[in-house]
Amino acid sequence: MGKLDRVEKSSILKQHLSRNKVPFIYLGKEDILDDRFDVNSVIGDYLDLLKPGTKVSLIDYIKDKINRTVIDDKRLEYVSYRLEDSYPDSSSGLKYSKLTASTYETTLYITYRVHFNNSEGIDTYEEVEHPIFSLPIPTFRNTFVVNGTEFSLVSRMSRNSNIYTDVVYDRETSSMMGEPRFNLTVQLKGDLTLPTKHSQGVQDVVTFQLTFITSASGKSFIQVRIRSLNMIRHQNYGTDLDPQLSQYDIFKEYTGGYVKSISANKTIMDILSNIDWESNNLNVILSKVFGVNPGDSIEEIVEKVHSQVKQNYNNPASKSIYGREALYYKIIESPTQWLYKELTGIIEKSLFFHTFKGLSWNIFVGKSPRIRSLFLQNKLSQWLEDTNPVSEGSHKRRIAYDLDLPTNDDRIYHSSYRGTVCPIETPESGKIGIVLNYASGYRNTNKDTGYNIVALPPSLIPFLNKNDANRCLMGSNMLKQSLPLKKSKWSKVITENYINMYNYHWTNIKSPVAGVVTSVGTNRIRVKTGSGEEIPVEIYTNFSGNKKTNYTTVPKVKVGDRVEAGDILTESKFFKSGVYTPSTPLLAAYLPYNGYNFEDSIVISQRLVDEDILTSEWAETETLTFDKETLLPTQGFCDDYNISQDWVINSEVIKSKIGQTLHSGEPLFHYFRPVKLVDDFIVKTDNGYPQNLFSLVDIRAHYDDSRVDAIYLLQDNEILEITDENLNKCTSIVICTSGCHKVEEGDKLSGVHGNKGTVSKILPVDMMPRLPDGTPVDIVLNTMGIPSRMNVGQLFELSLGLCSETLRKRLEEYGDTDKGREYLRNLLVLLKEEIKPNHDLLDELIEDIDNGLVTKMVNTDVVFLMPQFQEITTSVVKLILRYLGLPEDSAAHLYLPEFDETTKRKVIYGYNTILKLEHMVKKKTKARCNGLNNPDPTFEEHRGQRSGEMEFWALESHHATATINEMLKYTSGNYQNKKKLYMGLMTGRVEINPGTSKSPTLEKFSEYMRALGFDIVETDKNKPKENEDEIE
């Protein structure tokens, strides 16, 4: 991966500034933004599977198989193919396939001719069309929907251990020649995918063996052996050192005999020009074995090898060495490549022809589970993690090792990964180093250049080089777990990919044509072109991802606006004015505070709760599927069984439910199922029990303030209009709800630098530490979390964030006056003199000062844009602090209202981007872990989890004494009692003596009490107490 050439005035940053009019202060010395970043490029060639003439074409594979098929006296001939999608539009296909729990796929139909001789011996044919298989196809967001679940394909990295090097001391030859001989061999052998300059990959079995036979006296021979199954040729070259001859023969072998001319100083990498050996690590092998560089000529290589052999000869310990070192040759295959192998294997085994009322063939893959298993069971087809755009983009560019028992060597980051595989992003679990990600500058092409060597999440961390690598890894994972906030804002300090993400993400819908916006609705926007044609553009409403993320888009245009092709029409909650906004910057202070923020605990202000600053949004769907036993409470059903009319479900009731807000546990719909046991019935009639009894089932809201956004009636794969007639024939009802979660104690927060923690205390605003000007801080973090983890990048972000907010307030105070414009101009001039940039971005900002730049910064925000890998010196940060009148250490003595005193030492403060993570207390399991606090394991069966203290008090709060009595007596570990209880419930006669066995919970409680010095004695309640008077 070479360094990206400097992008001139047409850089993506300039385009973004001119289009969105967002004022950024760019602190980089060079303009090096990579405008080719695209998370979908890895899977972009998937549709080549269904196109003829491509390297991975299934059409060509089937065509070849048909043309080679002869059955008896009948011959087949391929004619044509056609594809039939399950949904004509990819945008509607994603939504409807998820709602209807179906698969978004296309069916391949093949037309072929059956040639045979008729009764007169004349060659005739019959043309037949048959469906061959149904293959899931990518949606508009490059994902796959199978059975209503969204999947993402990942790349595969496999290891070939048939690549090794030999360093052999040839004893026999050395004794014959009277001088030591060494053979050094590099051999590449096995099933390799060799990427060429003209294709994604060619599957071939190649053996490349390069052997130097050298002696201490300096006489050397070179032997080259190449074998390729695709070439069906095998050559041996054994000769004295003649670089021109050897290279000529190698080059001739790989070019099929066509050679123009070749010079003696050609390198090995130049000779094998048809193959991109650099991607296959040949340069690493040569360098590691022979100590040479890939650019060395053969004369230079042999000279270095001779020097190495001579050095080894002088070392007595090396004379008897026979060493073989295996180099694990790592191959990265795109999803299309490995899927092509799997599909062709299935076709080869499943596709066959037979005679049935004429010649036909078996329709095999459409109903076969083998294709579905590629998406439902294969570990390279994974459930899409789409908590946010970062998580989604990272998952689409994931690389998984095809290993069951990886070794430590497999987890090590290899030098050949640079520019292709990210050195930072990997799971923190046992899969560390096994699950990798493409670098954000990498594209799935043979030759590519780019500047970014890290994946998408690390590229969003400012001052990445100031953090420890472990904390960079954690910060990357935290960015993938952040939730969309109701009131998200720009971060004070951002990197390039905060802007680049805006151009690829599917929620930011762009106008396909230039024209005028004629209508803006909830489902589509219409753009009228110059020719008078109206182009509808579908937008996404009530759309939730796999992780219950609300991806509803918001129109950014209004009727009458003039748009150009490529202009943004809508944005999601994750973006604001073209910039990714994962969270909101908060005023943070670093100090221990009364033990509330001990270790990783965090103290926040009540303001964040009251003003919904850290309130996250969610969206989910509930599906009510009808089967033979499901009964809706229609008007007649309720009248027959004397059920409340509030439970009636009809078209009017369903329409009235849309837009309602529910509290936690409040039912939305009720329905019934017939039951057999008498004890389970709920519904009664005035005359007693009805002949058929029913159990009540309901759909309830999971959280407070749950809003019903939409309700759909579905019949198979079709969405019906909400009417009483359709309600009777629909097969399911889908309810789309959304809502918000306020931040609570126990929720997990994190910065982008891996500084994570849990909210331990929410204090009133009056109790929070205050700055010298009286401003209360929003969040208090512990200082001990920085030196122990060495993620000091958060302190640089803290200081620049303070500069950003101070500059905005200063400009708001001065206004767009001569004083305000001059104040901003002087700062930009000082920055230009300090940074000495080789771009004109700061000059353009200075020119825009007279065009309302001050007003823009006051109304939006002041954002510092910094390059990912350019060093921002402390002198730049201190210069801004000094100009704004702030202390250079960004620290001050804070006032503590709780103690009515000021801190004895200075406290560093500023603005940090704080993420709210998906680990919320509402979704956590509340359990204890020691002694009686832990759910008690039973002594029966497999010692499964039993009811513990938390379960006991939960039942006690609902006054479920009968259930508690049953748990502690009948079902508490005694198998016989359980069996008797079950039989009693079935027969209606429960006769069990609970005293026949001791409760394991009581036994454990007794052990703890005895350990504390108390004895527990069983007593008879009917027997009078001894010495009762003395006790009184």
TrEMBL record:
The keyword Transcription applies. One of its GO terms (cellular component) is DNA-directed RNA polymerase complex. Residues 382-439 form the RNA polymerase Rpb2 domain. It is an enzyme of class 2 (transferase). Residues 514-932 form the DNA-directed RNA polymerase subunit 2 hybrid-binding domain. GO terms for biological process: DNA-templated transcription. GO terms for molecular function: DNA binding; DNA-directed RNA polymerase activity; ribonucleoside binding. Keywords: DNA-directed RNA polymerase, Nucleotidyltransferase, Transcription, Transferase. Pfam families: RNA_pol_Rpb2_3, RNA_pol_Rpb2_6. PROSITE patterns: RNA_POL_BETA (PS01166). InterPro entries: DNA-dir_RNA_pol_su2, DNA-dir_RNAP_su2_dom, DNA-dir_RNAP_su2_hyb_sf, RNA_pol_bsu_CS, RNA_pol_Rpb2_3. Its EC number is 2.7.7.6. This is DNA-directed RNA polymerase. It comes from Campylobacter jejuni.
